[in-house]
Design brief:
- By secondary structure, the protein is mostly helical.
- 62% of the residues lie in helices and 3% in strands.
- The chain has nine helices and two strands, in the order H-H-H-H-H-H-H-E-E-H-H.
- It has a two-stranded antiparallel ribbon.
């Protein structure tokens, strides 16, 4: 999922996870598509009968956190919605690609990401340095929003 939709600042997410302050919604969102690629012995050691069972559990938990509005940050909800677009379950569900994509577009519009992307696109690119200053450290929200907007354009 990451090469297709690089919507998360991995360093910030890992730091948040290690410190115990990461978004539970985003954690379950990341684990849903990642569980398909996890080794079978790791999943069985965690108590899952199959990859699809692990994916279904993580997807269900992310969906519940979304439904109960457990996450206050709309940028994290946008990032999660973009990633959940890529999750394909073994059975039909009302929360398929169309739902998550529409939700991502709604959140991107609410956050006015297109205008943020256009206004900063001439100076800031993820990982780019201007006069030795790392833009990801100064403008992490802008870079995350820019990556989210780009991912929505690709989809």
């Amino acid at each position: 999922v990451y090469p297709f939709a690089p919507v998360i600042n991995r360093v910030d997410f890992i730091r948040g996870y290690q410190s115990g302050h990461c978004s539970l919604f985003l954690l379950y969102v990341i684990l849903a598509p990642a569980s398909v690629h996890a080794p079978a012995d790791v999943l069985s050691a965690c108590g899952f009968a199959s990859r699809s069972a692990a994916q279904e559990l993580f997807f269900s938990k992310a969906k519940l956190l979304h439904d109960f509005s457990a996450e206050d940050d709309p940028l994290l909800m946008l990032q999660g919605s973009i990633i959940l677009c890529m999750v394909i379950l073994d059975h039909p569900t009302d929360r398929d690609f169309g739902y998550w994509f529409h939700n991502a577009i709604r959140l991107a519009t609410k956050l006015d990401i297109r205008n943020v992307y256009v206004s900063y696109s001439w100076t800031i690119a993820p990982g780019m340095s201007i006069a030795g200053i790392n833009c990801l450290r100064i403008f992490p929200q802008v870079c995350s929003r820019r990556q989210s907007w780009y991912s929505l354009q690709v989809v």
